[in-house]
Amino acid sequence: MPIAVTPSTAPTPLEGEQLDLETIEHLSRVARDESLLLARHYRNHAVVTGVDASTLMAIDSRLAWYAGDIQEAAQLLDTLGADNSTALAFVREEQEYRAAASGDWLIAAKAVYQRALTAKVLHDEQALGDKLFNYLLRLPDATVDRQIDLARDDPAWRAWLEMQVAYRLDQTRFTQWLNRNARLISHPPLPRHLLEWTQGPELNRVTIILPLDGNLAAAGEAVLAGAVEQLYSLYPNPAKRPKLHAVNSAQYPSARHAYQRAVQDQPDLILGPLTKAEVASLMELGPLPIPTVLLNQPEADTVDRQSNRMNFSLAPEDEALQIADIAFGRGCRNAIVIAAAGDRGGRLLKALEPRWTQLGGKIRGRLVVEQASEANEAMGALLGSGSSDARIRSVETAFDLPVDARGRGRSDFGCIFMLAPDPPTARAWRPLLVFHMSGESPVYATSSINDGVRNSRNSDLNGVLFVEVPAMLPPRISDRLSRLRALGQDALSLAQHWNQATITDDWIIRGHTGTLRRKQNGLIERASELATFDDAEVRYGALP
Length: 544
Hints:
Largest sheet: 7 strands, mixed
Structural class: alpha/beta
Strand order of the largest sheet: 7-6-8-9-10-14-15
Number of strands: 15
Shape: globular
Strand content: 5-15%
């Protein structure tokens, strides 16, 4: 029986050793898709068969990552890069991926930039430029400004950062930056879609279809207000500002009739309609005659690949995917999932669970709460404290004595996905999680737990991490309609970026609902900001 070599006793990497990438990737797939135990077995077998020390350290770093030991994984990677410069390309690519996974966009951007600077031959230089732009776009304005002040000795890096400032302002400022700095940026090159944005046709007329009467009037008016506000922000010069015309869908017998009325205006682009049923009705028509940003999305199995439309909505599925990514990037590998019965809960589960498994996470328990009155007992059973409390009560009954002890919950999970449908449900569930011995486990949620209204009861949600649209975060003053106003603002931005969005699936807009990109199937994906409750107030979530 060979003696297993553990990471702490592994040999030191030697300068010049070539990594066995095939073995590294094979063991990584085993760890992600099958089990860490099996991957470690194969790792020890590789030691016996003579794998080199650098490959072994790369494997150990990957296995530590999949085990959720973020710090150990990073230390092993740093050692590998320091001891063997031949492995630096692998090290920087890993550092980029892990930084992005944890939401540290600045570290990810710097890793890409260093890869482009130091590589002698780059076959994927354009892809690196696209990635660098994507990561920088995710940085807050204040971080970009800070990094510009620190980048005095690197003109190219400074130019990339200044480009972000110009790009976020308007086309005029970006074109001015491009004329001054294009020669500084070649390794990696600028994304091609940026030129498409500057050279695309001008918008002269936009028509928006919204319900401005009836039960949905408040929602329609909020979206319209956001669109008008963004129109004046993007086009401050009245001479160049597109005309915006609103069609009140409530005055027409169907969405198709309202759309036909909008087409008669001969606009360059149409925004709307707003409801899921209206959007589904239009999509049944096939290709649309005018470029259209539909303000909702149909069921996934009805989505097609029409190039003349986008589906932009506040769909909670995007947020479910994002909290899975964030939790995994922060080191959770085993999760408990709690959702409410019904359509929304089912949609969130359908989005989150496959993503979590794809990343390499395991779901250790799952609860769908059917009745609010059953939540306490059901959570006790799920989290393991219920049976333990029952045993304590049996002892008390048998000996007719009080037992000064609490039940012990299960310990096979590292985080909880609390997919509550609304703030009252979240405020009811969170104390139950604490009561059932899971108070120290990170809890992740969607924006459904925040209604934008100040409420002292939000203290029950202190520490819960959730993703939220920027329009709902401080210093902005938010309310229940803030998300819909943000939807209108970003719909107008998508109109301006239409040509750019249709030639790339990269992130291109840092908007009021989040960072946006158009996927190949026409759906707009949103990446929101990480937030938390602190002393009953919403705050930005900090990096781990």
